[in-house]
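Amino acid chain:
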Amino acid sequence: MKYYIRTFGCQMNIYDSEKMAGILKTLGYEPARDWKEADVILVNTCSVREKPDQKVLSALGEFKKIKKEKPDAIIGVCGCLAQRAGYEILQKAPFIDMVFGTTNIHHLPKLLEEAKSGNKAVEIIEEIDEGEAELDKYPTVRENKYTAYVTIIRGCDKKCTYCIVPYTRGKERSRRIGEILQEVQYLVEDGVKEIHLIGQNVTAYGKDLGDVKFWELLYAVANVDGVERIRFTTGHPRDLDEDIIKAMADIPQVCEALHLPIQAGSDRVLEAMDRGYTQKEYLQKIELLKKYIPDIALSTDIIVGFPGETYEDYLETVKVVKEVEYDQVFAFKYSPRPGTPAAEMEMTEKPEVVSKWLSELINIQKDISFKKNLQYEGKTVEVLVEEEKEDGSLVGRTRTNKLVHLKGRNNLLGRLVNVKITQANRFSLVGEVI
């Protein structure tokens, strides 16, 4: 029996898919080369913008074809879109056999048995499933052998007016530090070199536990023998304090890279988004990061065209992008999410105007990213070699999360090597192993 999982969305969804693959592995399933040979197809969905919603429905239309060749094949939909609109999806695609949400993934074995018996296996729990920690007991099946995601906190207590996550993922729930360290130990023993701590808001870790802080967790993970690199995503600017920044600077394994979403540069728009900080306060955090970690590479998220945003507001965002000089920016047009406060707000600019702003912003950032990459030419940097391409070339990442293409031997896979950068491209680097 074989399975195929299509994943949309963030690192949390990728991690959930790795856990689902682990569950299926314990049930005796093997990964399929493509969906056409699968006995079970799972679509792990995202609902943060409208476009992923459309991609999910498009994928389901394609996967429906398997029912002609394999009438007993099971098609399941899970994740954030399933949590928000599972019954609606079932109406649009009645051929689906399973629908389940974000906090009851550990029920997959039971749901699978129900679907196999010919019933519609639908389980969308509005409240947080008290037994969701059962999921942590299953292994992960990863595509990358040398880096691994580890969930440290689920859900989000922030109430950003545009965001669907608190509705689909629930309130913040931190995992116990002992459970996290046990998982990290298992991963290291499995050959993992880089641990990537993830959550909707990792810098809020421990607030619900009362006896541990996020910076303390960083030190604890670094003390696990064999952990060579640590990253974390994503933190909210309000929860990033000097103690965390000091720990980042002090711990050798913590990489010099951070994703810190600003969403907008205008104080007026930030207030409408209920982000809880001003442009000045955000830039003070950036200044503190650069003070303690001068070579830090920064990335961010930006929403363009939020309800009420004017051209003057947009220019404030451009100002921040130029001042900070991010290495990477993930910028999107505002997408109303049903049930969020912002969905009731009136749009002030035409879609074509917002598209023009977005295009301008992306072009500004492209130039900045290229300029930042050019600074690497001639330098020697540490690269974790993660993948070998069909042509024999290798791919890895610097501590600052830059993608590097290099020639070398396949016995370098999984190793930290010194690489001299010979060429900078707009989105990647080229280097030679020293």
Summary: Residues 351-374 form the longest helix (24 residues). The radius of gyration is 22 Å.
